[in-house]
Amino acid sequence: MTTETAVRPRDAAEPGTPPPEKRGWTGLPALGFLAPFLILYLAFIIGPTIYGLVMSFFDTSLVKPGLSTFAGFGNYAEALQSGDFWSSLWHTLWFTILTTPPLIILAFVFALLADRAKHGRWFFRLAFFAPYILPSAVVALIWIFIYTPGLGLIEAGLLKIGITSPNWLGDPNWAMPSLAMTTIWWTLGFNFVLYLAGLQEIPRDLYEASSMDGATPWQQIRRITIPMLGRTTTLVAVLQVIASLKVFDQMYIMTSGGPNFATRSILQYVYDEGFTNFRVGYAAAVSMLFFLVVLAVSAVWFAIVRRQEREV
Amino acid sequence: MTDLAQRADFRIKLFNRICFGVLIAFALVWIVPLAWALDTALKPNAETTRTTWAIADPTVDAFGRMLRDTDILTWFGSSLFIATLSAAGTVLVASLAAFALSRMRFRYRNVVFWVVLAGIMIPGQVLIVPWFRQFDALGLLNTWWAVSLPQIPTAIAVFIFKQFFDGLPKELEEVARTDGASYLRIYGRIIMPLARPAVAAVAIFTFVQSWNDLLWPLLVLSNPDIMTIPVGLATVQGAFGIRYADTMASAILGAIPLVAVFLLFQRHIVEGIAGSGLKG
């Protein structure tokens, strides 16, 4: 124990300290522990990333072996000039804009309310979290039925109060909001649980002290709960934006990107170009452009977290 | 003064009541689609076009037909095998790597850690094109390996394990080490048994993610004999036509295993997130 405390600060202070091999901490066993992960990681994450980057500069075809002819930035130029690329990117962004605020705000409100509830917490956890674990195909099947004109649940409900509903998935203007609604129902549970976990971290005596000072519940929420959950909110927001940008399943099963390509996502564009038109080089270039968008979002998140940590 | 306190007390109670009412209302909204799907699955196909809730006369015919006429049981097996392999593989390789990063010292430890961390930012979905060619070249398309291998090296799992291991006191293994215990023994006998919440969180999330994944399995599994549940359901979706009871029965059958896992482990899921450092 004494050696431990003696060695640690020295390691931190001087990067040039001789490695601690002589005390039996050799690199070899560490490599043994790391090897299974690193081999798979290089083979299936790092390697393919580099391969995809290389491929994006070639006119690679799915049906022919090899990389085929060098295209330079041709694939990128083509993507950036393609109306289909921009519209699918816009659909993905539009979906992200429609889903992110409700998925943060509703998850926060539900978690706050469920945290206050004295009874039946298991029921609320079940109600809000259960949809999250359903496979997308199951969610899609249920909601296609709910949106079906003539017999869907929503139409029946709205008719009772005298409102005629639009053709949810069939109308190009309504298709995306309908998919967003389904997604909010489906994935809210994950954010809800993150907020529940965050709420448990807030010290109870903060509330007790403030209620002694006569603070109303509403003031407590505004002055204590919301500020204390700042970091959780940052995390929820970035995870949500990244998850929403990666949307594919709902569109693929519920609308196949239609009507009239109104809901084709960027990943479905990659899928269509690569695996229907066999242009995998071009699809790889589109993937890389999409990756840049995700990286930009991650970078913004990283910057915000750094700032929050400095403030604390 | 007591009057004032009573009024404040009353207002807080009223506030809590309203909150509870709002929460119940939303919880019901969230339950209705599931209840409706179940209700529909319990009707004969011919009755599903009536928008009544009556299940006075429930029938499980639709479930029977799905089990008999589709390959859903095969898909179950396929999903179960792939998700179990992915979850077990991820827990094993990620915890071993995290053990090295957290409890061992070696040169370039920080470099390795940053390389792993960088992987969190690479979305698997952008890798589908290279993966496809890779598995095509290996001759592994239409195999379980093609689906589960790429899911095993999950950077976020290493991160979760490392966070958890870092929180365990160093003194734990000091004694074992002076007794001459090997690293493998310290990992297997001391650290891992203590890391149950992290194991549960990583295992559950990997399992759920693998079970629900659609895009990649859809690309590599075209043989109905080894399709996973999401791929199978997505493929036959159009084939049922207006047989809504059958469709809903298949949806419910596809959801049952995960709902069971959730009901068994729901406390661990919340605890796992709370203890994993994922909450921010």
UniProtKB/TrEMBL annotation, chain A:
The keyword Transmembrane helix applies. Residues 1-23 are annotated as: Disordered. InterPro entries: ABC_transporter_permease (IPR051393), MetI-like (IPR000515), MetI-like_sf (IPR035906). The keyword Iron-sulfur does not apply. Gene3D superfamilies: MetI-like. The chain crosses the membrane at residues 31-58, 93-114, 126-146, 174-197, 228-248, 280-304. It is found in: Cell membrane. One of its GO terms (biological process) is transmembrane transport. Coiled coil: none annotated. Its main location: membrane. PROSITE patterns: ABC_TM1. This is Permease component of ABC-type sugar transporter.
TrEMBL record, chain B:
It is found in: Cell membrane. It is a multi-pass membrane protein. GO terms for cellular component: plasma membrane. InterPro entries: MetI-like (IPR000515), MetI-like_sf (IPR035906). Keywords: Cell membrane, Membrane, Transmembrane, Transmembrane helix, Transport. Belongs to the binding-protein-dependent transport system permease family. This is ABC transporter inner membrane protein. It comes from Actinoplanes friuliensis DSM 7358. The lineage of its organism: Bacteria, Bacillati, Actinomycetota, Actinomycetes, Micromonosporales.
